[in-house]
Every structure is written in structure tokens, then in C-alpha cells.
């Protein structure tokens, strides 16, 4: 019997069969940390899934916050994706390089802004290439889309809300950063930032949700949450270094039918970059 899998994740086979279909849009959301020595835009230019447009997560963002790739306003988001030829009624598939890395963030953004039919492709572009699937270097020139944003404010947690959650313990906190950054044993990649985690947070490194760039089946996802001490019957807020990989936890939660969750957009870039926020180290 085949293990049940996320209804929000699609296979490369399925994506390849849909290429060129009306109202079907493919989005390359690749983004990397400096230490990874990869450039999403450059890799997109040298070869991408036919018809895919590039979603620049640094550019399509609110630049007034002083934080990396903050969520843009609904109006700014709509304008940006319309230029990419995307409408809110389209079926949208998002992928990244290694698979289940930065694509979930853009999946979350589209859903938070009101798109109804949004998926993440398993395996990423790396897997697509390994399987010898078609690539193109031509840059698409899509006709403008029509995106009517319907912003879901409940999907996003602000700094003030996060401060209240930490103080009251009203929501579980799932942190997607690596274990060493969570405990404070490893320094943060961004200069001037304290190490450690928010009091009460649980460590859920983003890599534990996938194998070879493919999201784990539902039973394995459930066990991952249980092993981290997360009660799937209670509310959760997800966080990470800058709001990107937190969405991997969000994707896993929604895959399991957990709806009462939100993403802390400022994440550790905001929390750890301040001097007035409580930070603890160690494993608890």
C-alpha cells in the first residue's frame, strides 16, 4: 500500500505533462544562503523548466523593514506576479533548486495572498535535471496576469504578536534553523546577531521534513512533529532565520490538515537582531 502524501506537493512527472496547458504556471523560487555558493537567478538563466518564470524573493519584498525578504504588501505582490503572467485563478507550481527548500515560502506567499491552487514540486530542479527532463534557456515573455489579492492576515505573525506568544506560551513555536544555531553552539550567518532561540521554542531543522528533496509521507511528517514535542491539535507559529525555511514547517503542517498556524515573518533576523528580546541557549 502506497503511503499517503501531501495534497500540496506534485511530482515532476505530473508537472512535465502539464507544461503548456492553459492557466498553468510554473515558478522558479530558487534562493540560497551565501555559504551555499549558488545563485538562483544565474541557474535559472542557464536552464529552467520550460515556461517557468523566476520569482526573485529578494526583489518581491517589503524593503522598508530593514529585514531580508519581508512579505510585500498585497498590492505590491499582485503587481509583481501579474508582470510574471500569473493570475489568482491559475494553477501554480513552485519549485527550487534542491527541492523543499525555498519553494514552500513562495507557495505560502501565493496562498496567503489569495491564490487557491498552489503546489510545490518534489525533487526540485536538481532532481529534474538528474532525470534528464527538458530544460530551456529562453526567458518567457508572458502576457500580464490578473491577480486580485485577498490577504489572509491570520497566516502572518508580527513582532508584537510573537513577543506576546513568547511571554504567554499561547502558541507552540517551531524553529526551522539548524540545531547548532538553535542551541547557540553555532554562530548566526548574519553579523551582529545573537545565537540561541526564543524561550519555549522547539527545534525542527528544515531538512528533517524531506528526503532527497522530496517531502516525507504523511505518517513520517506526523512522527517528525511528535518527536519534536509539537502537539498537532494545538496552534503553532513557525520561524527560522529570515522567514523562508519556516514555510517548510508550514507546508508540513497544512499537509497534515493543521490549519491553526502562522509564520513569523521577521523570524530570527528580527528577534535575534534586537537587544530587547529574550534569548536562551541549549537544547530546551
Structure description:
It is a single chain. The protein is α/β, with parallel strands linked by helices. Helices cover 29% and strands 14% of the residues. It has ten helices and twelve strands. The protein has helices at 12-18, 40-46, 74-83, 103-112, 124-130, 159-168, 179-183, 218-227, 246-255, 267-271, and strands at residues 9-10, 24-28, 53-54, 91-95, 117-121, 156-157, 172-175, 201-203, 210-211, 214-215, 236-239, 261-264. The strands form three sheets. A five-stranded parallel beta sheet has the order 1-5-4-2-3, sandwiched between helices. It has a five-stranded parallel beta sheet with strand order 6-12-11-7-8. Strands 9-10 form a two-stranded antiparallel ribbon. Helix 4 crosses helix 9. The mean pLDDT is 96.
